[in-house]
Amino acid sequence: MAMKCVRSVFAVFVFLYGLNLQAAMGNTEETGDVLALLIPSIAFGGTFFREEGHEGSMEFLKALGSTQLITKALKTTIRKRRPNGNCCDSFPSGHSSRAFSGASFIHKRYGLKYSVPAYIAAAYVGYSRIDANQHEIEDVVVGALVGILGSYVFVHPYTQVQVTAVAENGMYGLSFKKRL
Fold it and tell me: What is the pLDDT of residue 19?
């Protein structure tokens, strides 16, 4: 029952984002803004649709959280001026890191065939930031790499059987876990 409620709320959320995206069409920057939030929202929602429970959502939160922390730390440390002259949080692109974090989560968790549309949308987010004179290409590329890195560190593929190496107290072996 609770899972159906979460799915319904998520469907409404995506629908409302879709309306906002439709309203933003024709404005590259606004479309990129919406996609930068929509991609990770869909990735997170996918963990509920697949009914995989706590594990997938926690991996997503770790990946996105680490991405956001690294992005903010780099922005604060480097303090690069934006191409439009505004100071000083251009490097790396937060929109790109967020979008690519969602796309790479989908890729790592569920496979490349499910992530292709998300990667295309994430690339558009990066393009929109350059087109809006908010970032230079290196800002977007590093933002994308930070987003991808977070997912590749924290996310494991969703499979029916999970095998994990175990090494503790002088004992070594493998742990098998089957999803029901």
Answer: 47
